[in-house]
Amino acid sequence: MRGLLRSRIVTGLPPTSEGLRNDATKPYFLWWTEVTVGELKRKLTEGAYAERAYWLGALLREANTRDVWLFTSVAEIKAMWPHVYRHLGKSRDMWQFLLDLPAPDSSQHGA
Fold it and tell me: pTM to 2 decimals?
């Protein structure tokens, strides 16, 4: 079953909007800010680790799962999981299940 889930995650459906492929687009899932797709891509790859974890958490928490894969990968989520976990709110359990991830030790992320 786990292999099937990973296969669906990686190959997934197309994005909910082709506009998400345009760096000038303001993505629907960042409704509280004026950050564009291009700015989000930079925030996810540049800057302080804590800031990158915040934006990855926002992406995972707010975006449709099929849109997540335009911006990150399973490997990146797994690598940042102990720091992203606290930013996920109610979506924690879903991501933990989908990616077969452990609940981080609270001493790892300061929660």
Answer: 0.84
